[in-house]
Amino acid sequence: MKYIFEVHIKPGYSAEDYAAVWVEASQRIQQAPGALGTALHRHMDDPSVLLAIAQWESRALRDAMEAQPQDEVKRIIQKAAPFCEIRPLGAFDDPEWVVMPPDH
Q1: Is 49 exposed, middle or buried (0-12, 13-18, 19+ CB in 10 A)?
Q2: CA 89 from centre of chain
Q3: Is position 17 within any domain?
Q4: How many domains would you assign to the chain?
Q5: Which residues are bridge partners to 53 per DSSP?
Q6: Hey, is 15 helix, strand or coil?
Q7: Which residue in 82, 87, 83 sits closest to 15, CA to CA?
Q8: How many CB atoms lie within 10 A of CB 79?
Q9: By residue range, what is the domain housing residue 34?
Q10: What is the DSSP letter of 37?
């Protein structure tokens, strides 16, 4: 499954500032059982808007990680909290099949 959220960077803070904190937190979160990777994307028309996508084996494993957050992860995330607004977009099932071009 994929958990997707949108990040709005406040004036005076940059996407690069947020990305540094995001990488630090993601490295720790990705050690949790069921974590399959993350990606952070910048909006093409508005560099203050980012899209984060975290991939998990299952929603249950992601929820288990959220239920027992690491103190270090909370501390890292709190560093960026005053400078951005995070809007969860939700949890999405992976499709049963995916069609991709042959060169991928």
Answers
A1: middle
A2: 11
A3: yes
A4: 1
A5: 4, 39
A6: helix
A7: 83
A8: 14
A9: 2-92
A10: E
